[in-house]
Amino acid sequence: MNTLTAPEPQVSQPIERHRVRLGRYADPESGEARELVTVRSAGGSTLVIDRLAWTHADARLIAHLAADEPAENAHVVCEMYLADEARGRCRRVTLQDLELRPPILSRPAPRAAPPSSDAPLLDANGDSYRIRAVSDGERCRALRWTRTHHHGREEDFAVLTLREVVGALEDYEPARSLTINALAAPGGEDRPSVCGLRAELDRLDESPTLLNRGLREAVQRKVARGEMSYSQIALRCGRFKRDGRGNVSGETSWLARRIGLKPEGGETEPTPWIHTKTLALIVREGLGGSPHEIELG
């Protein structure tokens, strides 16, 4: 779940409630020693915090783990954080983090079981997507994702990749689960080939580009609450422009293209994808959060 929240009064007192030290490192800019610790909140959750080692000041929230998560998860978060050269851009810890039960602790409703591969998925335009056996030559058949336009006949379909389906729906599920189910389904000698579908699943999982819907929603929430503007976010990411008088402002068109609000040059539709490095830049620098807090879909 996305946990980017509005700025709250900063914590001024040392945080020592149920503290466990996970690791230490030297700030590359100041040379000051910093430590990573876990702190138990009043609601039973665990905060993973980056702070100055000696004064315990400048506490930054790395992650907020639910009460029922295993303790090992804090160590995993710590290792990932230390391996990231752009660490230290997380927001400050607030009193609300320590004293209130955060939104991320409320369990989301369980997902319904994915529909069968024969049941179509529908996008916002009414087009339907489903896995079916497609002829690949005279005798070969293969399982592939297909799309049927809402105004067309069921037999008039186009063959798509799994990535194209995920992009059209702007969600990884249930298309990804349906693909896994189709690959795992038993079959005899006449079973359609699944080699292409398996390769598409591997490419989706290994791709350095992710859906930008979660990031777009996080940016829109920040702007709607008046916490910052599109221009401020772009400016904090190092993307700026000057007007005729030399005044500097954020390059909002760059941000709008990255989060899927405007199409790239030469395109007619916004892209649903964003590179992981660009996503991390916008979240850390622009929003002051952690990429792990963005729900990808």
Major beta sheet summary: 4 strands, antiparallel
On the 0-100 scale, what is the average pLDDT? 80
How does the overall form come out from the CA principal axes? globular
Q: Name the quaternary structure.
A: single chain
User: How are the strands of the largest sheet arranged?
Assistant: 1-2-3-4
Radius of gyration: 23 Å
What series of H and E elements makes up the topology? EEEEHHEEEEHHHEHHEEHEH
Poorly predicted regions: 1-17, 101-113
Give the total of domains: 3
Cα end-to-end separation: 10 Å
Q: What is the number of strand segments?
A: 12
The helix/strand class is alpha+beta
What do these coordinates show?
The protein is α+β, with helices and mostly antiparallel strands. It folds into 3 domains: 86 residues, no CATH class; 87 residues, no CATH class; 84 residues, no CATH class. The protein is 29% helix and 21% strand. The chain has 9 helices and 12 strands. It has a 4-stranded antiparallel β-sheet, covered by helices on one side. The longest helix is centred in the first third of the chain and has 12 residues. It is globular and about 75 Å long. 27% of the residues are buried. The N terminus is likely disordered.
